[in-house]
Structure formats: structure tokens, C-alpha cells
Amino acid sequence: MSEQTESRFVYTIHSSIEASQREDYQNIQERMNHAAQAFNGYLGQDVVYENSGTGSQLKVTTHVRFEQLEQCLLWLDSSQRRELLNQAEKLIGYRYRFRLDSNSFDQWIQAKETSRTPIWKVNLLVWLALYPSVMLLMWLGGSTLGKLPLPLNMVISNLITVLLTGYLLVPWLSRLYSNWLSTASQRWTLVGCSTILVAQGLLLMVFSTVPGFPWNTTGP
């Protein structure tokens, strides 16, 4: 048995066949295995047969192993594999469901991930969400929260703004700025920062000049 490596990628296939089709199915899998050996990074496959508990049906789980995800994708998209699948469909009415082995996929992501979202970008989005939330809450809650003792007012106000920004505004801004959050381009990073600063400037102007806000009062 070869040693498990972090880069190993496992493609898992779940099939359901009639018990009478097992021999034909094994033949197809052997041909699949033989064809896959011509592809770089192929580490082999194993096939497990289980009674499904529903009459003569068998549940079949096949693990196809490659060194890298890219190598596995080349095999999955290959004309050789498609031809074998077409033959299987004609021979035994072959149908299958598939899923990616989550552990292998997570390992591949961790191994291949070259960068993470900078925390300062996340903080900028939180800032953009928090400022209008606090200002609007001060305005809308002036007749209710504003009459409470300041410590109680702050506890309730902070809870409302955290829920509003954490569950609504920040997720929305994260989707809006998804490309900016992941980009390594200095140019597009600067463009994104500029739009945030402009948005904050516009909000500042609105809250500072539009009549009707309780803090926009003119003294005698």
C-alpha cells in the first residue's frame, strides 16, 4: 500500500446495479482501470460491493485515486472514459451518482491555496456597513432607545448593529466586492478601496447636510 500524501485526490463514484449485472460491471471497471493507467498521476482504484437491502440491488462504491486534482479531471473529461461509459450504458444500462471525497478535496485546497483574503479588506467592508447602520439606528431609535440610560442604550444598540451588519450588510458587501477581496492586483485593490472611501464620503455628506436628522439642528 502506498503512503498517503497530502496531494492525493480521490474521486468517489456511487452506483446501483442489479446483482445479475455484477460480472459485466466488473468487466467495465477493469477496462476503466486499464485505460486510466495511461494517464499521469493515476494511483489505482478500488471497488466495494454491498447489498442495498432492496431485493437484488447492489450498491457499488468506487474510489479512483490520482496524485493531483488536475490529473483526475483530465481523465474524467477524456474521450477514452466517455467511450467506456457509452459502452457501459449500452451493455448494462449503467447509471451512477458521484461525489468528491471531501477530505481529499479539502487537503487539495489547503495545499493549493496561495493567498487568503487580507483582514484589512474585511475590516474596510465592516466599516462601510457599520457607519450607516449606527447613524440610522441613532435616528430611528431616538424616540425609544434614546430615552434609555446610556449603558442600556449602548448594549441594545450594539446588539442590533452587530446582527444587522453580520447577517445582512457584510455578507451582501462581501458578494458585491468578491472579486476585490480575492484580487492580488494593486490596481484593482486601489479601485476597490476608492469606491469604499467615496461611498463613505457620500454617506457623511448625506448625514451631515440632509435636514431631518436630529443632529442637523441649527442653533439660535
Write the layout of secondary structure elements.
Elements: E1 9-18, H1 22-36, E2 42-51, E3 57-66, H2 69-76, H3 79-92, E4 96-100, H4 102-112, H5 119-140, H6 150-176, H7 178-182, H8 186-209
Report on this structure.
By secondary structure, the protein is of the alpha+beta class. Helix content is 57%, strand content 16%. The chain has helices at 22-36, 69-76, 79-92, 102-112, 119-140, 150-176, 178-182, 186-209, and strands at residues 9-18, 42-51, 57-66, 96-100. It has a 4-stranded antiparallel β-sheet with strand order 2-3-1-4, sandwiched between helices.
Low-confidence stretches: 1-6
**Numbering strands along the chain, what is their spatial order in the largest sheet?**
2-3-1-4
Shape: elongated
The assigned structural class equals alpha+beta
Please describe the structure with a list of short key phrases separated by commas or semicolons.
four-stranded antiparallel sheet; single chain; 8 helices; 220 residues; alpha+beta; 4 strands
Concise summary:
By secondary structure, this protein is an alpha+beta fold. It has helices at 22-36, 69-76, 79-92, 102-112, 119-140, 150-176, 178-182, 186-209, and strands at residues 9-18, 42-51, 57-66, 96-100. The protein has a four-stranded antiparallel sheet with strand order 2-3-1-4, with helices on both faces.
